[in-house]
Amino acid sequence: MDGFTFSFPIRVRFADTDAQGVAHNSAYVVWFEVARVEYLREFAGGYQALRDQGIEALVLESLCRYRIPARFDDELVVHTRCVGPRGARFRYEYAIVRGDELLADGHTEHACVDAVTMRPTRVPGWLAEAIRAAEGTSSSA
Question: Tell me: the pLDDT tens digits for 89-112?
Fold first, then answer.
């Protein structure tokens, strides 16, 4: 998908579905998380690299727009990009597709905090640079 720098395949598990065989709305947020963790692994040494420095990245907000239902055993792709690392905050955007169909899209907002005090702390420079490199933006962005 245009504008997305990363994608990760997902297969809809039976446990992801309701009695009608349709993916439950809560599964989409889990798929966002799976893609986000894989994005960090691919471009920034993984989420554990943050934790090793005493930083956690909390989810402040999540939004998902459901457009077309996913069903058991569908093969999906979660397209992911990270935008706007500034201060303590950054945002991931997602598009979930099945073939050429857009099933859902959305975003999650995050803030870095000190793991002990839970007080906001700046996005580490190395992470901001990894995001900029992955997204093809300059460090002045």
Answer: 999 999 999 999 999 999 999 999
Q: How many CB atoms lie within 10 A of CB 4?
A: 16
Name the catalytic one among 18, 52, 73, 114: 18
Is 18 annotated in the active site?
A: yes
pTM greater than 0.70 (yes/no): yes
* 114 neighbors 37 (Cβ within 8 angstroms): no
**Residues in CB range of 27: below 8 A, 6 or more apart:** 12, 16, 17, 70
Closest among 20, 12, 28, 9 to 73, alpha carbons compared? 12
Q: How far apart are CA 77 and CA 95, in angstroms?
A: 8
Task: Report the side by side order of strands in the sheet with 101-114.
Answer: 6-11, 75-86, 89-98, 101-114, 55-66
- Radius of gyration of the chain measured on its C-alpha atoms: 16
